[in-house]
Design brief:
single chain, about 350 residues, alpha+beta, Creatine Amidinohydrolase, Chain A, domain 1, Creatine Amidinohydrolase, 2 domains, 6-stranded mixed β-sheet, 18 strands, about 20% strand
């Protein structure tokens, strides 16, 4: 905080709550001062906070009582400039805090607090590795359930049941199960559509282990696919491999993204790859850094990112292939081990 000339910080984003204090619920606010730290919550979470946050004083001051408590502590310690998470606090909350804390200055933290989580520790990487391994196991399991006549919803439910039964604390995000023409929707929601021979099925899902997420995508064929679908599968896989080939410390997300994007464009499908190549993964399934046309941050050892090119053709279907990798001193380690050749079921 000294580096940024602030005297205190208000932390309220769920992932940052857990990262800085160990608190696993979301109904709380951290107040971090130079020599004191508080977790402010309500009756429902007092005991939980006392157990999970031994380095914090636990305060029962929820709702409208939070800001007055923050002001009291800041004034008593001459804290005149206070960070707040402007990417979390809505305008109403900000207005309420600003009025209650006056004349204390609220300073937008921008992404500084979240950026502190970008480079993972060995323990964090190990948790993500466990989550990725469980996702791989889930993929092997669900292959036995993919057949004509089964619906997207049934596939998603079976996969979720397996993941939870085998140790996932929940889903990193709602499972995407997109068959046939629905495959052109990058974030399709599972529907009652039944799988048919000749179609592709795209599965995008992730687990949570000790709060840390994984994220993987595989696209499989039911029987012999249409030649056009087989073509875009190979192009997508080639694009991913080209991107993986250049991943190392010191390269930007822009440069990695360009490898995949240029290959897809060279095959005539540039307009069918409309999202970024990848994103960071940790306590949140979508966090910094970004592998995209805007990803100017240099990759560093300990960063964990997805590599997920895709081609989406409305009225036909789509393909996405996604691995989760951790940047190492001389390259990367792929945390996703599921096969990537075109599986025909």
């Amino acid at each position: 905080m000294k580096e940024h000339e602030v005297d205190a910080a208000i932390i309220s984003q769920k992932e940052n709550l857990r990262y800085f204090s160990g608190f696993t619920a979301s109904e709380a606010v951290l107040l971090i001062l130079k020599n004191e730290s508080y977790i402010i919550t309500d009756f429902r979470y007092i005991e939980q906070a006392q157990i999970q946050c031994p380095g914090f004083k636990v305060i029962d001051a929820p709702g409208t009582r939070t800001a007055p408590f923050v002001k009291e502590k800041c004034v008593s310690l001459d804290a005149s400039r206070v960070w707040f998470e402007d990417n979390v606090m809505n305008f109403r909350e900000y207005s309420s805090f600003r009025e209650a804390l006056d004349p204390i200055e609220l300073v937008p933290a921008k992404d500084i607090t979240s950026n502190l989580r970008i480079v993972k520790t060995a323990d964090e990487v190990n948790n993500i590795r466990k989550a990725a391994k469980l996702a791989d196991q889930g993929f092997l399991h669900i292959l036995n359930h993919i057949r004509p006549g089964v619906s997207e919803k049934e596939i998603a439910l079976e996969l979720e049941f397996f993941l939870r039964k085998n140790g996932s604390e929940g889903l990193a995000f709602p499972i995407i199960a997109a068959a046939g023409k629905n495959g052109s929707l990058p974030h399709a929601e599972p529907s009652d559509k039944k799988l048919e021979l000749g179609e592709f099925l795209t599965l995008d899902f992730g687990c949570v282990v000790n709060g840390y997420c994984s994220d993987m995508t595989r696209t499989v064929a039911l029987g012999r696919p249409d030649p056009k679908l087989a073509e875009i599968y190979e192009i997508t896989l080639e694009a991913q491999l080209k991107a993986l080939d250049v991943i190392r410390p010191g390269i930007t997300g822009i440069e990695v993204d360009k490898q995949a994007r240029d290959h897809i464009a060279s095959k005539g499908y540039g307009n069918n790859f409309g999202h970024g190549l990848g994103h960071g993964v940790g306590l949140n399934v979508h966090e910094a850094p970004s592998l995209s046309v805007r990803g100017d941050k240099l990759l560093e050892p300990g960063m964990v990112v997805t590599v997920e090119p895709g081609i989406y053709i409305p009225g036909t279907g789509g393909v996405r292939i996604e691995d989760l990798v951790v940047i190492t001193e001389d390259g990367y380690e792929n945390l996703t081990s599921s096969r990537k050749d075109l599986i025909q079921l």
